[in-house]
Automatic annotation (TrEMBL):
GO molecular function, one term: FAD binding
Origin species: Ictidomys tridecemlineatus (Thirteen-lined ground squirrel)
Catalytic activity field: L-proline + a quinone = (S)-1-pyrroline-5-carboxylate + a quinol + H(+); trans-4-hydroxy-L-proline + a quinone = (3R,5S)-1-pyrroline-3-hydroxy-5-carboxylate + a quinol + H(+)
Protein's UniProt name: Proline dehydrogenase
Enzyme type, top EC level: oxidoreductase
Cited function: Converts proline to delta-1-pyrroline-5-carboxylate.
InterPro entries: FAD-linked_oxidoreductase-like (IPR029041), Proline_DH_dom (IPR002872), Proline_oxidase (IPR015659)
Enzyme Commission number(s): 1.5.5.2
Needed cofactors: FAD
A single GO cellular-component term on record: mitochondrion
Record Gene3D superfamilies: 3.20.20.220
Amino acid sequence: MLWTRRVLYSQAGPSSGGRQPLNFDGEAFHLKGTGELARALLVLRLCAWPPLVTHGLALQAWSQRLLGLRLSGALLRASVYGQFVAGETQEEVEGCVQRLQALGLRPLLAVPTEEEPDSAAQTGEAWYEGNLDAMLRCVDLSRGLPESPDLAGKTLMQLKVTALASTRLCKDLTSWIMKPGVSSELSPERLAEAMDSGQNLQVSCLNTEQNQHLQASLSRLNRVAQYAQARQVRLLVDAEYTFINPALSLLVAALAVRWNSPREGGPWVWNTYQAYLKDTHERLRRDAEGAHRAGLAFGVKLVRGAYLEKERKVSQLQGTEDPTQPDYEATSQSYSRCLELMLSLVSHHGPMCHLMVASHNEESVRQATKRMWELGIPLDGPVCFGQLLGMCDHVSLALGQAGYMVYKSIPYGCLKEVIPYLIRRAQENRSVLQGARREQALLSRELWQRLLGRAE
């Protein structure tokens, strides 16, 4: 088998030199300028204020009417946009990436576009084709960024399926997938064949228009994957809501069949697993075993999850079982179990299994680095870390300075596109923003030290 049951990294055991525990007390803030730290403190405090997040879009419209587009835009660029966005032009994005690389961090570009499940219907195939062009440009931009020789084959970008396929289609597919005895007409292998051949796919649960949209969506997804693989860019597919995730996982599985074989140098397509869902550990184990049996490489981005409040509201309205963990502690335990499973798989299967530890939680990061050392997984191996641009810098910088591979998720684009995207992300990540008090305290301490002349 291609996934051999041998320990690739842990045979030698932990380094005889001993492990140096990571320090997340903000020491690495000395690498950043005072202006950057002041802006970060201000923006993080603003984003932790619930009314600002809840009414963000209305407040943006109000500021434009009161201050005018130019002044309102200037304020946003100096604050929220400047904190969380790489820029609008290629030159601005490259400048942001070069600053990150100087700090030992790497870019993970994200196109700020998607179709929200509760939004009005978009304007048909033309909208998705426009998003396809944006994704292909993102591949080019990701590949064209300045890089060091050690980044070969390690360029990553994010992909949102609902930018290329309608949520309505994903809902209908999910409803069909969840029924017992689903036929093989919705198997990943059949979808992969249709994706590769371009032949019309007919699925009995869909009408003619939906089948046409499914075929067009498969074609768009395959074009992005093909383009990305040719340019050595790996795709990290975002998870979304539970009522469309089974369909998204099916589409990602089809891409994996086509692009994650060893002969392609995979995994080129990674899926995201949300630890705040009750069934995540079992799904992760099952999917890993399925990839093993099929001889496919397996790529995973492990997150806690961002849709907790909405998931609970939907389950209450529909009278269905809540799919989420009961509390934050249970979510953390789930994340820990999933992390342990994945690190064990990496230690046994090496380059056939890749993991991004996408977490702002210090204990999760400590667990990951400790287990990597115990299992003998090298810092430049198939495990990396991910945090949002503008957040959790005390963790990102410490990891980067210690030699771990750390990626910052970076949206880019014009104000009109990015600000609504950021507000939606803030609404989904309320707990993360409100839980950033430690980072705010560390930023405040560093700034006071500089003001009092005690900083180095």
